[in-house]
Amino acid sequence: MFRIGHRIARSIHRKFSDEQSVDVSESDGVRYLHLGSDTVQSAMRINNPTSLELRYTRGVMMFLLFMPEAKSMLGIGLGGASIARYIHHHLPALHQRVVEINPQVINVARSHFALPDDDERLQVIEGDGAEYIRNHPDTADVLFLDAYGSDGLPQELSSQGFFDDCAAALHHDGVLISNLWGSDKRFDIYLQRIEQSFGGRVLVMPTGKPGNILVFGFRRGPNDLRWSTLRERARALESRHRIEFLEFVEALRDRNPSTSNRLLLDAMERETT
Fold this sequence. Notes:
Rossmann fold, 7-stranded mixed beta sheet, 4-stranded antiparallel beta sheet, globular, 10 helices
């Protein structure tokens, strides 16, 4: 995706080069965040800031299909705070922490992207995401990784050790959601590392062509992955959220091993089917 509309703001911190500037643009009632390039990192509809403008951000909410009772979420990478805003407004029972290394991203999210102030349900932490995860095992029900910059995914947020730490950071039935670019030449390497860290309990969900691909990693598999159950849950979620959950269920079916009756997650099940 490329910048559309006119730039309305630029912010640079001395720790980061000019190529990693934080830019804001607007077009047709939508505000966009860019990190050092024309690529759109986040988007917010100005007259409806608590909606999810980009399809991949709506796809992130598929964790509700698998963990409807999740109480805590840790995010690595703030961007334009799309997920933080949505959850803070629509899911008041869910506690969020978001770790962002660039203070200017935090500043711009607050000044231009309606990021709520910290409170008992939301804490935005300036810091190194890999270090935070390494130092906080067993800390969240949901872990969301969205840390692409102008140069792609940083090595410290994509190594095998990092994904091992991600698995350890989740509660025993927790789920990882990693936002990856389908055009990234290292996509298969990242996917294999996530599969190794999560014992093969991984699902892949495209959200556009080529676009963003969400990878879900599970500490242990959900109890019921029958298509009938997943569609029933998706319909119930659609009644409460303006999100295309049923379409995302079909995206899971198109990309992952399954039978006519159910989605397959366990590696042994996949081998014997």
